[in-house]
Amino acid sequence: MLESGDMPLTTDVSPIFIGWDVGGWNCDKNPASRDALVVIDSQRQIQGKPWRGNLRKCINQSGNTSEFIAKLLELCELDQVYADEQED
Questions:
Q1: H-helix or E-strand containing 60?
Q2: CA dihedral angle for residue 77, residue 69, residue 47, residue 84, rounded to 10 degrees
Q3: Fewer beta carbons within 10 angstroms: which end of the chain, N or C?
């Protein structure tokens, strides 16, 4: 349990939102069906590069939520951008 003086520090990092159009998870019969990802910021501006493909392998190989989110950001070419912000 957190004591009153042990509250987590807040940062000035702006929130981002990951949109996922689920399309490829169980679509083995339709190879044209793919997942799509896009990342936007709080001003609804696209960040990085939208991605299309199948996320099945990414989901199955992620050991936890943090790994999964990191892989999604990597697919959208944002992994280094947000890794740098976390280090500041």
A1: helix 56-61
A2: -70
A3: N
H or E element at residue 68? helix 65-75
Q: Helix, strand or coil for residue 28?
A: coil
Task: Measure the CA dihedral 64/87/55/62, to 10°.
Answer: -20
b/e burial code for range 12-40 (CB count within 10 A of at least 16 → b): eeeebeeeeeebbeeeeeeeeebbebbbe
| Consecutive 10-residue averages of pLDDT for the chain (88 residues) | 52 86 72 88 96 91 94 92 59
Handedness of CA 78, 81, 84, 88 (dihedral sign): negative
